[in-house]
């Protein structure tokens, strides 16, 4: 079937627009279109190509999703070899390199160098013919690499077609494929959640991702590239300098490292080295040094090559960020949310510019995966200000049968039971109300607006009260004296009196609020209300077994376990008793009114209510057995629209969902009746 000129033009226009926006987003980091508009363009092109496969071209951005798996990689011979660089490890070594360059050139003046970070990634050569990406190959041994074209096509910042009108007949663009630090962290989080092996470092992750036989897997990995040079070039004159070549690559739409500099002499090179080393940890990508190149191509030709490396370039390697040491002990720390984190105590070792004596082991699963034991020889890694971590165990140096580490079953801080759910990596202390390691966060939550709503008790004041030793748990708040509060920073007698009054007011509450304030894991407002409506008072809930908890609609096995465990900790019960002794109380809850016309109905509140607060309206509706949702969907039964109702009202109208006003809401709930 003949495709109309209009469809061909539309497909070409869509490809051009999408490639343009890809370049602005992934290369320039300066998008000028909203994500939703981009998605519309992409979907339209996908639909056109699916309906008319003849429209699919080699530079279509839809190819970035990956193709069917290969059986193996094809070998590619590099027309221009991809040679390695010699290394130096200190400034004296670089001075020697600079002297050799000037001696060979008989240069009496300083040499101009082009400098750029040495990325810790994987070298790549991408071949373009008439501006179209036709092949991508790894370095391999420098002369023969592997064809990874389909994988490189999936990398968003790599242009499938070069921009501009001055594109040569053939050009090989050399660069480094890498994985940004943020992408690496996300990938390892995904691997952990899926129960898969995590990657040791970003370079390992980038190399493994680029060499996938299934390019659809590569497409899901957060890879990026910076270009650093030219290989074969046909159909145009070579630029005069390396810097000119980099500007030309930028003009063609290729990503070039923004840290690249032109340095007129050796002193400027030293300043660049020092500056970049200071910035190293803040960069969005891993580097292990700096590459210096004689900037002028004619001078590069005169210098030539020695063995497998050019005489006109050198790699300055920063001090290693990995070192070998011994595990002296493994201790467990308890964080502010109750998470237990094992920490290795190490034989002190100098790495990454500092002496390291501790390294995080993250969690029990990570210890098992790496099989770290006290007495092991290990490789540790430090990157900038990130907490050092153990990369791997040197098993060949393990002597005898070292005992396997076991996580404690009781919190090392407060003695409460440690719980860890199936499928979760983190173990947690269950003594949330009492545990000193968690006290600040537990008290802040207890006082928050949706919990006990203690007006004037902000986060900084809670921290000051704990640091001064005036409170150890939430119950201590209700035993504070005016003289104690008035002596605190920024706390005059008037504000101290106001806080005491707010604490007095908070003593009268509702059981759902109190249960939510306790901070039981995964017990939010809705679950707290369901618990209150089912058990009606606290003693029955405390005595409940997991089987009875599972009878509640909002409570599954995991939540039931958390609730049951929480109320089995003596320290938690002690704090609850102390709260009740201080006068905290609530009226008995009434069972949910299943006879109410609103029972089981899903209601959404939107806009500003004039006569009652949104929170009060929600509580009244819940007491009538209704469910109050935050968004409108086909399952919504009613929308209550107050003043200045917005998108929720519009959506309700589009779905033909009944909309009522505040007067109707008042009639439903008996407000002012």
From TrEMBL:
**Catalytic residues per the record?**
118 (n6-amp-lysine intermediate)
Q: What is this protein called?
A: DNA ligase
Q: What is the lineage of its organism?
A: Bacteria, Pseudomonadati, Pseudomonadota, Gammaproteobacteria, Thiotrichales
Q: Give the highest taxon in the source lineage.
A: Bacteria
Q: Which residues are listed as membrane-spanning?
A: none
Q: Which residues are recorded as binding Zn(2+)?
A: 411, 414, 435
Presence of keyword Transferase: no
* One Gene Ontology cellular component annotation held by this UniProt entry: cytosol
What UniProt keywords are attached to this protein's entry? DNA damage, DNA repair, DNA replication, Ligase, Magnesium, Manganese, Metal-binding, NAD, Zinc
Q: Which residues form the BRCT domain?
A: 593-662
Name any cofactors this protein relies on. Answer: Mg(2+); Mn(2+)
* Gene Ontology terms: biological process: DNA repair; DNA replication
Source species of the chain: Methylophaga lonarensis MPL
Which GO MF terms are attached to this record?
DNA binding; DNA ligase (NAD+) activity; metal ion binding
Q: Which gene encodes it?
A: ligA
Reactions the enzyme catalyzes: NAD(+) + (deoxyribonucleotide)n-3'-hydroxyl + 5'-phospho-(deoxyribonucleotide)m = (deoxyribonucleotide)n+m + AMP + beta-nicotinamide D-nucleotide
